[in-house]
Amino acid sequence: MSPSDKTVESEYENVNEMVQPKVVFRNVSKTFKKKNEDLCVLQDVDLDVAPGEFVCLLGPSGCGKSTLLNIAGGFEQTDTGSITIDGQEITEPSDRRVFVFQEYGIFPWASVWDNVCLGLRKLPKEEQKRVAQETIDLVGLKGFEKAYPMELSGGMKQRVEVARALAVKPDVIFMDEPFGALDSLTRLTMRSELIRIWKQEKPTILFVTHDVDESIQLADRVVVLTERPGRIARVVDVDLPHPRDLASPEYARIKGELYELLGVRDWG
Ligand SMILES: Nc1ncnc2c1ncn2[C@@H]1O[C@H](COP(=O)(O)OP(=O)(O)OP(=O)(O)O)[C@@H](O)[C@H]1O
Ligand SMILES: [Mg+2]
Description:
This protein is α/β, with parallel strands linked by helices. Helices cover 35% and strands 23% of the residues.
């Protein structure tokens, strides 16, 4: 049995414990056709994500993490295999699935309030107001409703993004290195804020990062991808209560395991 077979087998063991997975990746492979040579980016990715689970995808640059999210979001097609959400195969984008990116996706010409309301246009006016205020309060931006993005710090802009994503009560939130552009202190704050919000709302989150500490601080499970073509090297459980004790032996053990999987020896 190859190591990747083992990964698949242990994934199926997890599936048996789940009632009904929210997101299912089955044999997902992707090759980008290029003029001179084809670029195989993803190979046989198999993964089940439970409802309300926080899963981090960790892997080296260029291994296909963003591509995997783009396929799950319906922006790219798989060559083989499929991705389903609640049993429905993903074939196109939907406003039930939202993205939060590193570059600020909020509109600079709209206030915090209007940015959050943009996704709520289908709701009756009163309901819009209630949801927008609730979500703005939830991300800690109460009092900044009328502010424009240029008046906000980087962390606050990311809060607006998170609010905008949460407001539409999506099935799944895809986060692609959302805190990558923030300074290290703000990044730490945003991680704990995200966990606070996630615990309260319990959305299913797929979070891409190449930061080992970030993945251990956030995830229920860390899915480690190999270098391109990205395959699942291992799925590592992070069975530690929040807030996570960064000095605990278990934290250090998981960190060692993840660095080893990424082929980094001298990380300590
Ligand atoms: N639309 C596309 N057409 C052609 N090649 C692409 C396309 N999108 C991505 N690629 C290539 O696929 C590979 C994987 O890209 P991807 O953006 O998924 O990597 P990543 O793991 O997210 O990397 P990073 O950590 O740097 O963001 C890269 O070599 C990239 O050049
Ligand atoms: Mg990427």
